[in-house]
Design brief:
This protein has three helices and two strands. It is about 65% helix and about 10% strand.
Length: about 55
């Protein structure tokens, strides 16, 4: 089960719903802004890898 720490909840809530759902589906623990940034970087990298060329 994913966890978003209260310290970054406000930043997390500013993301689009589709992105929030994609993050929560990953079963991650977001304790700080660096955790959030790492997950976002992973999502971007996967999108670039899976994008048609």
């Amino acid at each position: 089960m994913s966890h978003v720490a209260p310290a970054i909840r406000e930043k997390f809530e500013t993301l689009p719903i589709e992105l929030k759902n994609a993050i929560l589906e990953r079963d991650v623990k977001l304790n700080n802004i660096h955790d959030l940034m790492n997950v976002l970087e992973q999502i971007v990298a996967e999108g670039e890898r899976d994008a048609p060329k």
